Amino acid sequence: MSAQLSSRIPVAVLGATGMVGQRFIELLQGHPWFELVALAASDQHGGRPYAEATRWRLPNSEMPAEVAKLPVLPCRPDALPDVKIAFSALPGEIAGEIELAFAQAGVAVFSNAKNYRMTPDVPLLIPEVNSDHIAAIVQQRKQRGWSGCIVTNANCCATPLVMALKPLQLKFGVEKVLVSTMQSISGAGYPGVSAYDIVDNVIPYIGGEEEKLEIETRKMLGEWEEGRGFVYAPMVVSAHCNRVPTREGHLECVSVSLGRDVSPEEVIEAWESYVPEPQQLGLPSAPEQALLYRYEQDRPQTLRDRDAGKGMTTTLGRLRPCPLLGYKFVVLAHNTIRGAAGGSVLNAELCVSKGLVS
Amino acid sequence: MSAQLSSRIPVAVLGATGMVGQRFIELLQGHPWFELVALAASDQHGGRPYAEATRWRLPNSEMPAEVAKLPVLPCRPDALPDVKIAFSALPGEIAGEIELAFAQAGVAVFSNAKNYRMTPDVPLLIPEVNSDHIAAIVQQRKQRGWSGCIVTNANCCATPLVMALKPLQLKFGVEKVLVSTMQSISGAGYPGVSAYDIVDNVIPYIGGEEEKLEIETRKMLGEWEEGRGFVYAPMVVSAHCNRVPTREGHLECVSVSLGRDVSPEEVIEAWESYVPEPQQLGLPSAPEQALLYRYEQDRPQTLRDRDAGKGMTTTLGRLRPCPLLGYKFVVLAHNTIRGAAGGSVLNAELCVSKGLVS
Amino acid sequence: MSAQLSSRIPVAVLGATGMVGQRFIELLQGHPWFELVALAASDQHGGRPYAEATRWRLPNSEMPAEVAKLPVLPCRPDALPDVKIAFSALPGEIAGEIELAFAQAGVAVFSNAKNYRMTPDVPLLIPEVNSDHIAAIVQQRKQRGWSGCIVTNANCCATPLVMALKPLQLKFGVEKVLVSTMQSISGAGYPGVSAYDIVDNVIPYIGGEEEKLEIETRKMLGEWEEGRGFVYAPMVVSAHCNRVPTREGHLECVSVSLGRDVSPEEVIEAWESYVPEPQQLGLPSAPEQALLYRYEQDRPQTLRDRDAGKGMTTTLGRLRPCPLLGYKFVVLAHNTIRGAAGGSVLNAELCVSKGLVS
Amino acid sequence: MSAQLSSRIPVAVLGATGMVGQRFIELLQGHPWFELVALAASDQHGGRPYAEATRWRLPNSEMPAEVAKLPVLPCRPDALPDVKIAFSALPGEIAGEIELAFAQAGVAVFSNAKNYRMTPDVPLLIPEVNSDHIAAIVQQRKQRGWSGCIVTNANCCATPLVMALKPLQLKFGVEKVLVSTMQSISGAGYPGVSAYDIVDNVIPYIGGEEEKLEIETRKMLGEWEEGRGFVYAPMVVSAHCNRVPTREGHLECVSVSLGRDVSPEEVIEAWESYVPEPQQLGLPSAPEQALLYRYEQDRPQTLRDRDAGKGMTTTLGRLRPCPLLGYKFVVLAHNTIRGAAGGSVLNAELCVSKGLVS
């Protein structure tokens, strides 16, 4: 470990002043493989110290003292010369060009932005779900002549859904999925949702979210075929997305039609016995349990279960028959950790452990 | 009207101290047909004035001065001798026997309790949906030898669903329904949900609610056949029920499979052209519009739409294709008005206007 | 009245797209004296219809149909030629110049902005409190050579405080005041407070608010002396201002030292017997009761009392001895009605009724 | 330490099923000095396992597995024979007799109940504030012939106030205090406050709270004089207590009149240099910093600062002049940890370290 520490990989956070940017900073503190050496942001902070450029928004931590002093640099590769990995929390409006520039400059970009998620040679990666999709990186580099790469993570509400579906797909097949989400305010970033819009309210609409949830799920549960690219999973997914007045955690009600008749015990067993690659490899950010099934009749709950596994465990519960599709259940994950910054860090760890980034 | 006023029907509220009981009192103020003459409650208040027996819980009104002085009587027919109609807000644990006693004593009971909703000769009535189900009252009286009767209203989350489905059923047929609810805290009564359980939280479970929503929908959308009784609608309904931190209003995401191919315009037209019996009859509690479709992409919202039509209008929105079932949409109704006390008062008005109660 | 209606005064709303601007529009619907003929806003809407320029934010009303079609004009007097009264909901950054230009052009400006509140010849007016301060308008016009004028209303948390103190000052004198506020999110405008900052939180700081509350109170409770100007009340006021997660209504805990020993009964009697000028004159926006004292031990409450008198009544309660200053009590008023738009409309009504605007 | 571990003191929690009881259990997990060996509760659980008798209410922890199996015993000393220390989270209605019985039976009772707080020979103890008050225990035992004892902790809103005042009293003297609280829902226990009462609301009344806050502060900041007993601090304290919709943490706005003129720097220095006995002794539950002053203009905030020092640090901020009393500031502490269970555990640690309990 000390050897590792002495040679940690220098990383940067792009879009470091926003909420997901701050989550990246929080998660990178004391990381055994990665050393946060640079911060960049979209707007012109002119190299001012991070502590002057922004305020810390995360309620349960403080701005790390050594980060407070770091200058906020422009989002250009030449401004961040020594960086090997860039974690991108950039907004979609500007992420496209910037991430491309970094990848061209040889940096491995792990992005939380939506821009390249559906790009044919870019993996939409959740290591517990589709770690084999990293094969696309090889083709991406070959085809584009890059030494860097772009790897994306999923929309924050797609993450818990595919985490829940993957073990079922593997064992039984998944044919139809109907999901209704109750998403926290932090999913909209900062300042994000006006308090006047959401206190004592539910907003049954989040722009573009349902479309992303429906298509990203199928890409992630699909296959990477050499020479052919991504083949989307042939399932039908229908989504209802809602904003509710909770701080963190996206809770989802799912009805699912499986490929064959199975007992409830088999479904739960599929989840409980699922030990995906990050847990097998012992990746630093992998929680002990990727999936946790709770047997209480009223769990998971947003408040009580979002911090499971330091926000990296996906919690399941309430499996019961669905008169329409076969089974229904509830799934929850922390949206700014598991569904955003933590997911990207885990993606980077997988790529490092596989020798794709060094 | 002045004639009516001089001969208003004397009514009582059973379970007058709870939240739905207070809604009944609120809605009966100045009612043109009904005169609130008596209050009763389950526990022993020994005839104390209402103002001493309870506190007013509704935030936007005050305890009416003339109600404050009324004694809180025991829930026995002999204690309320002149009453023709009893509105019951009793809890399920005691509603069964008490409502029976009143019906036997010749009182028309309009109940918000769950006890008799599924009883074969008791109508589960929403006047905009199944006003013909009042035919069951005739049989109920004949069979049981009563001059009174029991009429129930639906569970507070079943009401908006069937309101939305009825015009579709009439025009196109409805085959499959998947509904996910976001229900307000007032749905649990008072004191109901502990603030510590729900602030910054979603609870994806309400005891017995999903079962009620699935079966009540089919009874209400079914048919009353003379000599045969209720024939449930042959549709499949699957429900996910959630408690969210809002005060009033139940919002529901619905996916639906119709009996034939129709355009979105036809679906909306089915809702907008629907003028059910209460509106035709001009019943006092019927809102101008039974159903209101909103074209904004983010409506209905719990806070903004729950009070439409003084809490009696059901608001719809976001009709769009569902990749799985055909169409999806959002529906909202006020749970303690439209879905509870207001629904019962409207039921009574229908029965009076049809000559079944006088 | 029909005569009045036929000759209603043409008025405009400046800053019509924000939350207070919308409150102005809401309150001016059907106003017997004022006819809303023009809307203006700070940013360039190029004459687009109001319905296209903004969304309606108020939860319990809809954008009025005739307002939806009005063009959103630039905030220049020449763009609103026929307007006699302008209600200003402009932000402080731009209100100064614009309001000045309108006053110079002969328009009576009733402003909710902070810019001129402390100006020596501008009244800071609450008709129930210091209606005699309108005398400053005469001097303002003479001195500045205007035919228009500028009249300001108070900060939204100063309003309930001075409403509570005025009757005490009149009868007993007020020497020391310590006030701690719990202010709603709508006080920050729209989008205002980020939901991520305030859900499950209290923020004990609102920029500039404590200073405003301390000094405005003394101006409003002071005297206008001909030739000398405003003489501030010689009382000491100390304020703590807090933001809490409520939608509307500013609740304030007050400790007060009166000019002489009085009984609690006398204090309450001072409030209950207070019939200020708007109620005497029967101004259209004056609620029946300017002040309402509630005897329940836990009132006023933000949710339950903010809408008293359609949001124009100030509610008091919990009068009890203060070991330090003599008495303590709680006071509440609706911040965007009584403390903002409604206050300005009432100011205009007072000036019209006194012949200062026509 | 391993020696200590092998001989940890056996302790029990009385009132183990409520919210403060659960906090006790949570805080006693892995405690180096205390071993939780028994649970008791007021109502008859007949020895059923804890997991069956109650549900875990705390959102950020799980019921410890070894505690889940413990039987819930009756609150009688003979039912808990081996216990040396009892932590009492009993409600006031029954705490009186039960705590007395345990103390008589030789058990050291550390109570969170209000019953004995004002008793002349019972210390109302906050180790950072009045650790010398434990001298009362000696007299309590002598006078009453007990080998056990009763030690109480303060009301949850008195704790942050006296924590803030003590260093000021020591250095400058404190003469007058005016405090206005914003208290979280968890302060009312479980189920405590109905969500319907508090969502979107502030309730400016908590029964008995203002009286407790005013008198407990003076006892804690007073002196224990041998032979004379407690001499209350001669300061004047006036309190306004409010319930706001936050989960945990009591925030308080304080105006204070000190014994002499001091600069703001001196006040902050008094707080920052204060190293009370628990920190000097290194008691296990003592946070690194008893008091933390934050220099940001909008801190402390309920959400962001309540968990400082694992909920045991008291956070201060916003020191500024008060026109009335001299200085004003804001103080915050976690009400169910620092202000309840954590405070009692720290009290027990102090008594053990002083040789009063073994």
Automatic annotation (TrEMBL), chains A, B, C, D:
Keyword NADP among record annotations: yes
GO biological process, one term: methionine biosynthetic process
Record domain Semialdehyde dehydrogenase NAD-binding: where: 10-137
InterPro entries xrefs: ASADH-related, Asp_semi-ald_DH_pep-lack, NAD(P)-bd_dom_sf, Semialdehyde_DH_NAD-bd, Semialdhyde_DH_dimer_dom
A molecular-function term among this protein's GO annotations: protein dimerization activity
Pfam family, one: Semialdhyde_dh
Active site: 156, 250
Domain of life (superkingdom): Bacteria
Keyword Ubl conjugation: no
SUPFAM superfamilies: Glyceraldehyde-3-phosphate dehydrogenase-like, C-terminal domain, NAD(P)-binding Rossmann-fold domains
Protein known as: Aspartate-semialdehyde dehydrogenase
